[in-house]
Amino acid sequence: MSDDKTSPMGLFKKYLTNRRIFKNREVLRHNYRPQILPHRKPQIDEIASILAPALTNETPSNILIYGKTGTGKTASVRYVGTELENASALAGTKCKIVHLNCEVIDTQYRVLAQIANGLDNADEHPSDSTRSHIPMTGWPTDQVYMELKNQLESSGGVMVIILDEIDKLVKKSGDDTLYNLTRINSDLKFAKVSIIGISNDLRFTDFLDPRVLSSLSEEEIVFPPYNAPQLCDILQQRAEMAFVEGALDETVIPLCAALAAQEHGDARRALDLLRVSGELADRENASGVAEKHVRMAQEKIETDSMVECISTLPTQSKAVLYAMLILEQMGKRIFTSGEVTVVYREIARIIDLDVLTHRRITDLISELNMLGVINTRVISRGRYGRTKEMWFDAATSKIEEVVTRDPRLDDERLKKLDVNRLRAMFR
Ligand SMILES: Nc1ncnc2c1ncn2[C@@H]1O[C@H](COP(=O)(O)OP(=O)(O)OP(=O)(O)O)[C@@H](O)[C@H]1O
Asked: Where does ATP bind?
């Protein structure tokens, strides 16, 4: 305490003096845009060849890009987009890229407004008083569409619209936006529009009108998952910029790569593992990052994502989960959906929740399984039909802590749950 008070940096001194691990941890963060993307040359070249006609003021084909999460789709498209803008500046042609994240911008109105406002660059058009800035709500959608067309026409040139996480837009607001955007070229004389849709969920195309799908997928590019040696190369390249020389034990990168490859070849996961391993070593003032830090990082990331996932569940799902925790506390390692339903009903009754049907509870159980919170399997019980069994994989103390953070489940009345009576019922 007195040390902290006497040092000018006080409490933070020890964090500033340990420079043995990181040189620049920012390069491991999600928002860092790498200049080199190992193992994505074929995809980058393909995107570039499809967009190249933009440099001679022709309309590039629309592209649909698929691939699992963390396979470098966004990073590659951004990279090609920047190169295209640079090349067009040199060639004296007009190409503009607008990148929208449809997880955030998920209605037709907002997509159209954002594209128009992306064009609405006052520096480029200082004397253009015909342009009006579209408010993010309030206008009729038709008016927004007209204004977008006007602005595209007055800008001229080629605009490439990147709709990242396009599946979220379709799920939230249907395919009207895509219908309008894929037809907009027929209404334009001086400008051209091309669309790149990016998704990690192939199923969204089932919800598209066949005409929209065929127009959107004039070209399709698939990003395969990375394997362990490829992830090693990606990590190696970032590690050189992020870590002090010699700070990483030689087993660290191969282990991060192997763990991320085992799951689904996700570069984001591999980079997170490497960054968190470094942070854990840094925090314990270690002289370097070792295998044990990677193991700790793996556990921390898993627990953090589980906590995040459970804390955002609705109260009914948490009540179902709470029923499973009670069954576990009663000494059961594996429980059936029938048992969960009995305990759940007791809980719902005590805390005045609407009591769900067995069918609905089974749906919530399947959802918990899909989220990886529990494991389930269906077993046949001969003439009694089939039933679902479930169990927890990991220690449940963290799950209980998160579930009981819900004010409805942190109820004094729940402490009166008659476990002995329940136990007798399952005998
Ligand atoms: N080949 C690569 N070289 C270097 N870094 C990469 C490479 N591929 C991906 N990354 C990095 O991994 C992270 C995830 O990549 P990106 O966001 O491009 O994935 P994505 O396929 O778009 O994922 P999602 O579908 O989840 O959005 C980013 O930090 C990115 O910089």
From this structure: 71-75, 226, 238
Angle between helices 108-119 and 141-155 (to 10 degrees): 30
Asked if the structure places residue 82 within a domain, the reply is: yes
Ligand 1, closest atom to CA 78? Answer: 18
Q: Which residues line ligand 1 (CB under 6 A)?
A: 30, 34, 37-40, 67, 69-75, 200, 234, 267-268, 271
Same domain, 249 and 207: no
Phi and psi dihedrals of 193, rounded to 5? -125, 140
Which of 36, 109, 136, 130 has its CA nearest to residue 76?
36
Q: Give the Å distance between the CA of 32 and the centre of ligand 1.
A: 10
Q: What is the ipTM of this complex?
A: 0.98
Whole-model pTM: value is 0.79
* HSE-CB of 127 using CA atoms within 13 angstroms: 0
Strand partners, 197: 64, 163
Q: How far is the CA of 273 from the centre of ligand 1 (A)?
A: 14
Domain of 252? 226-308
Nearest CA to ligand 1 atom 10: 72
**Beta 157-164 vs 191-199: how paired, if at all?**
parallel
Q: Are residues 302 and 381 in the same domain?
A: no
Spatial distance between the Cα atoms of 295 and 291, rounded to a whole number of angstroms:
6
Tell me how far the alpha carbon of residue 381 lies from the centroid of ligand 1, in angstroms.
46
For β-strands 63-67 and 219-223, DSSP reports them as parallel
Beta pairing partners, 381? none
